[in-house]
Design brief:
Order of helices and strands: EHEEEHH
Strand content: 35-45%
Number of strands: 4
Helix content: 25-40%
Radius of gyration: 15 Å
Mean pLDDT: 88
Largest sheet: 4 strands, antiparallel
Shape: elongated
Distance between the termini: 29 Å
Oligomer: single chain
């Protein structure tokens, strides 16, 4: 979208529910901020959706989608004091989580 703004789109399994889909998207946002060389970020907007998949023979399941627009905030800028820290959001093992990449599920 721009040099400091990007979009995350994720989908989650039925067992995850909408909260699980949001958590996957949020974790993906934090990982991507670090991969791009930053730490501070804000969520500019987000969208959630749900849909059905399956057929009459195997049954139908609800899947959940979450999208977020993320803007990276430079350290030392006036906005940095109100921004989230990607490393803090991911926790003490943030380096391992970044090396593994975006999770495939909400668990």
């Amino acid at each position: 979208m721009s040099r400091d703004t990007f979009k995350i789109d994720t989908h989650a399994a039925p067992a995850c529910g909408p909260t699980g889909a949001r958590n996957v998207a949020f974790r993906a946002a934090a990982i991507e901020v670090i991969r791009r060389g930053g730490d501070k970020f804000i969520i500019m907007g987000d969208r959630s959706d749900m849909g059905m998949q399956g057929d009459i023979f195997s049954g139908f399941n609800t899947n959940f989608a979450q999208g977020m627009v993320v803007r990276m905030i430079p350290e030392g800028s006036p906005e940095a004091r109100n921004a989230l820290s990607a490393r803090e959001q991911l926790g003490a093992d943030w380096q391992e989580l970044v090396s593994k990449g975006v999770p495939n599920t909400c668990t």
